[in-house]
Amino acid sequence: MNAPVIRLGLRENAAQFSLLIIVNAFVGAMVGMERSILPAIAEQEFHLVARSAVLSFILVFGLTKAVSNYAAGRLSDRYGRKAVLIGGWLVAAPVPFMLMWVPDWNWILFANVLLGVSQGLTWSTTVIMKIDLVGPKNRGLAMGLNEFAGYAAVAAGAWATGWLAATYGLRPEPFYLGVGFVAIGLGLSIFAIHETRHFAAHEAGLGSGASDGKQPTQREVFWRTTLTDRNLSSISQAGLVNNLNDGMAWGVFPLFFAASGLRLDQIGLLAALYPATWGIAQLFTGAWSDKVGRKWLIASGMWVQAAGIAVVILSSSFVGFAIGAALLGVGTAMVYPTLLAAIGDVAQPSWRASAVGVYRFWRDLGYAVGALIAGVVADLLGLAVAMWVVAGVTLASGIVVALRMDARLNPALGVRSRELMVQSFHMSGRMRQGTNSSRERPRDGDGPSSDTA
After folding, report:
1. 8 A C-beta contact, residue 210 and residue 346
2. Residue 36 sits in which domain range?
3. Residue 440 burial by CB count (10 A; 0-12/13-18/19+): exposed, middle or buried?
4. Is 335 part of any domain?
5. What's the average model confidence in pLDDT over 66-77?
6. Number of domains the chain is built from
7. Fewest 10 Å CB contacts: which of 109, 249, 335, 370?
8. Is residue 6 part of a domain?
9. What is the pLDDT of residue 295?
10. What's this model's pTM, rounded to 2 decimal places?
């Protein structure tokens, strides 16, 4: 029997792509159910006073999600995408029940360890699978749709749990939703989602990668994405700082709003407004990056985020807080799908899943860094100062992108990602030759790589 024909593209794989969008929405809803009420639970039910202790759940979530992201990329390349996706949902199954009933804050932290592992495995895998399906065309649009679904669900979950908490109490009713999220997400992943690893192999066979045929090691992929490739490393640091300020917003904003006298339902609405703006705007910003390029959308997005944080700090009313939260959401939308699309532009299909895993490792480590910085500074100098520090770091990250990232990551100008892949490959080859002089030297005529750090 003939093998099925593999066709890359969003329209060509609309059914599976749509199912992955739905699955990712339930992934986002799982983390959304914590965003508006867990700081209040920490203070009111577990009587935590220190800001660093209140934000400890974000710290453990960020650390475990970061490591799981890296593992998800490697495991997806080795064992396939679907198995990793199902495993992530199985890890999430106990989380809603723990959040409902556990009597000790340490158990809440353990629930967030499980949630971080689950989020890293499930969200990373849905991203990788969508990149597999669509191929190089409209990659930014695909990532915009993916992140829209996830963060619209984060917003819906934050609003719903905030409303339920204001109506029925902080626990257990708000977390009943999580049981349904896990059941539907796991069921779809088992019975409706198909493996996509062969799509990546097909794209590689079309010649969209480097022509030399050599495969970088996992160590080389890690360091290239982290430091030595100027495009990939610029993307990674921007991702880390983006989630650094998201972690601050997750943990510090509810405390800041409560200190300003807002009610729990108002805090829930503001906690939903930021990811809702972020999610909806990604419907446009992802596709926009396909037309105007990645670099300046990322840099300016970081600057808009910094401005949004500043507006929140300088405001004293619900309206001002809402404007600042919306600005933060718009800036994040400019950055989030664009970073993922840029990773796909540079990384070859044969090691792209691993590169996505490394990028998401650094990006979601930002949750932990943000919680640590915000918690320590808030305890020492107050909430407002902690927020100013995060705004300054975000501004600086945009400057790094502006100075270091290659503006040629622009599909609209006809600059192919293949060119950057080949340059990145030759750069890695020169690194290996520095440690083993017996290997062949670069071919004559290879110009200096744009990926040199």
Report:
1. no
2. 14-200+216-431
3. exposed
4. yes
5. 87
6. 1
7. 109
8. no
9. 92
10. 0.76
